[in-house]
Amino acid sequence: MKSAPKAVIIGPTASGKTEAAEVLAARWQAGILSADSRQIYRGLNRLANKQGEKSAWTLTGGEQRTIYCLDGVPQFGLDLVDIGTRYTIMDFQREAERLFEEPLPLIIAGGSTLYVDAVMFAMQPGPTDLALRRELEQVSRADLESEYAKATGTTPPSGQPLRRLIRQVEQLRLSGSLPAPPKRQFPDVPWYGIAPSREELYERIAARQTPELEQALLAEAQALSAIHGPEPLETLGLWPALSVKRLHGELTAEEFHNQLLADTKAYARRQLTWWRRYPWITWFSSAEALTSAVA
Fold it and tell me: Could you give phi then psi for residue 160, rounded to 5 degrees?
């Protein structure tokens, strides 16, 4: 990588990290690299909670990127591939490396733990077996955790995404061990976290989930399913997967509403559990507190 990011802003969904990143990016004349595992997909807009006005950006050398502008602040890392395309954290790491070659400084902002870690740690690819991975995707989380514990003699890290756990069990089966923990890159880059109280966070999640949003999620899921089929959306979890279930009649309108709320809250808890492992993060109670404290 030719340059380091200006800062990393992390936090659970609905905590205000994008708003904080926008304020600091405007202050620092920087852009934002969105580290979000759903926003990479073209057409996944409301279902991935993309924000901003879609536009185009030309990199040095003529390469084109789709960006989403927030009051003039460009967001990168969105609309990278079509739905159904295999895209790994190593692909995202390479995208970040390419963007760090540009003169525009970037703030990393996101809640997808795997994607932030792919940029900020020196990760190396391990052995891969896609057929085995598809098999493991059908195994319950409890059984995966049990296999991990038997193979390593330790319990898997709490709060980690299911995708990471599947990948770990895949590597354990293929090589009998896990890769050494990756080293942190850019140790001088500050990490800022936003962690509202649980009550406030749940209120923010509930306020965001309006009837209008729920109808927009279903409409987008229906349109995308007509193009790509429902399977790619089902694999993306959370809003896309639940929207497909509602469209297929597996959930009533009330069940859809309640499950969206419950799963989003559970996702927020997992995100916070993961980030709390990193002692170098400076935590704030809100986006406003962060942007007031950071010059």
Answer: -75, 150
Q: pLDDT for 10-27, tens place per residue? A: 999 999 999 999 999 999
Number of helical H runs and strand E runs in the chain = 12, 10
pLDDT, residue 180, reads 80
Share of the chain residues as helix, strand and coil, in percent rounded to the nearest 5: 45, 15, 40
Residue 17 has which token pair?
């990290």
For 11, list phi and psi in degrees, rounded to 5. 165, 170
Query: Which amino acid makes up residue 54?
Result: K
Beta bridge partners of 192: 9, 282
How many Cβ atoms from other residues are within 10 Å of residue 226's Cβ? 9
Q: pLDDT by residue (tens digit) across 217-239?
A: 999 999 999 999 999 999 998 99
Strands 106-110 and 7-10: parallel
The helix-helix angle for 113-120 and 89-99 (nearest 10°) equals 50
The per-residue b/e assignment along 29-67, b for 16 or more CB within 10 angstroms, e otherwise, is ebbbbbbbbbbbbeebbbbbbbbbeeeebeeeeeeebeb
Q: What percent of the chain has pLDDT over 70?
A: 99
The burial class, CB within 10 Å (0-12 / 13-18 / 19+), for 290 is buried
**pLDDT tens, residue by residue, 271-292:** 999 999 999 999 999 999 999 9
pLDDT exceeds 90 at position 3? no
CA 160 vs CA 12, 47, 135, 183, 262: distances in Å: 13, 22, 20, 18, 18
Residue keyed to tokens 């089929």: 229
pLDDT of residue 1: 46
